[in-house]
Design brief:
- There is one protein chain.
- By secondary structure, this protein is α/β, with parallel strands linked by helices.
- Helix content is about 30%, strand content about 15%.
- The protein is built from eleven helices and eight strands.
- An eight-stranded parallel β-sheet has the order 2-1-3-8-7-4-5-6, sandwiched between helices.
- Helix 7 links the parallel strand 4 and strand 5.
- Helix 5 packs across helix 6, helix 6 runs parallel beside helix 7 and helix 9 crosses helix 10.
- The radius of gyration is 18 Å and the shape is globular.
Length: about 325
């Protein structure tokens, strides 16, 4: 869309006839689809689907991430006017078709039914030939998503940006808890721990179950370049899922989250690491734990929207025009 055509645009989330291109609608008006992409359940001809999971009933402390997908979408309307910075001119919005698949529908009062619904939701998207970038929701949502991806790819490499390892022991596989999702994912064989790594950890964990980790202090002291070299060394070219808990960022950059921990990554560090991961075989991703009620400035949602954009870039980088 050109600037001249912007005057004719009317909620392109509904009316766009071209699946590709930057957007020039007013950021403060219109439908808040992610990056002003088209809302659709028909993924024919699309390369990537962004979907929301507004679920926050697995939290250990502060709820509110059910409002995360909506806030991330709203914050993302500031971004689709230009190609993302730092990607050597790569413009995924113009080169590829990205759909906003909307949010997963579920009965908020039927919490035990959510995992199966979510697994089927993601499997349905994968079955249409698209990868996913999912907007959370609390971090429990990653477990059903990994189940769907493992059905297609087998045990995955996982890159987890997080303040917490989420490896608390919990052998009740029916129990729903955002602090134990990775423990269960490892125990269920969804994750290849020898090809995975956790980044930004700064809370205690008695047993990492063989999962390598790089804590936040090491990230600060060794630098982003060193960290991304380590990540690439772990995952190689194996099918990789990237999960980004927004509390990987220091509360100074992302206060709107349920379990904030000081000493975390700065936003510039996260941006540098994600951009330097270009080339990994990323098949899917999510950004979780954005809790708008705890951040009246909107900064956390803005950070979440930028993370989601970077994840879209990673998902499509290897498919770009050479």
């Amino acid at each position: 869309m050109t600037l001249d055509k912007a005057k004719e645009a009317v909620d392109t989330a509904f009316t766009a006839t071209d699946r590709r291109g930057l957007a020039y609608e007013n950021a403060f008006g219109g439908a808040t689809s992610f990056l002003r992409r088209t809302y659709t359940k028909d993924l024919t001809g699309y390369d990537l689907a962004v979907t929301g999971v507004p679920f926050d009933q697995a939290v250990t402390h502060r709820p509110g991430t059910r409002f995360g997908p909506r806030a991330i979408r709203e914050a993302s309307t500031l971004q689709p006017y230009d190609p993302p910075y730092g990607w050597d001119g790569f413009d995924p919005l113009s080169e590829f078709a990205i759909a906003d698949y909307g949010d997963m529908a579920f009965d908020y009062a039927d919490v035990p039914g959510v995992p199966g619904l979510l697994q089927a939701h993601i499997a349905g998207i994968l079955g249409q030939g698209c990868g996913t970038v999912t907007l959370g929701g609390d971090h429990f949502i990653t477990l059903p998503i990994l189940r769907a991806y493992a059905e297609k790819y087998g045990p995955l490499s996982v890159v987890q940006f997080d303040a917490h390892s989420d490896l608390w022991p919990d052998d009740d596989m029916g129990r729903i808890d955002h602090g134990t999702f990775m423990y269960k994912a490892v125990k269920l064989g969804l994750v290849d721990v020898t090809r995975s790594v956790q980044i930004g950890i700064r809370t205690e964990c008695d047993d990492y179950l063989g999962m390598p980790y790089i804590d936040a202090r090491t990230c600060h002291e060794k630098g982003t370049g060193w960290v991304t070299e380590q990540i690439k060394g772990y995952v190689g070219d194996h099918p990789t899922y990237v999960t980004f808990d927004i509390d990987a960022l220091d509360p100074a950059f992302a206060p709107g989250t349920g379990t904030p921990v000081w000493g975390g990554l700065a936003s510039w560090q996260a941006a540098a690491m994600l951009r330097d991961l270009a080339g990994i075989n990323m098949v899917g991703a999510d950004v979780t734990e954005v809790s708008p009620p705890y951040d009246t400035t909107g900064a956390t949602a803005i950070a979440g929207a930028h993370v989601a954009m970077e994840l879209c870039c990673l998902a499509l980088w290897n498919k770009r025009k050479k």
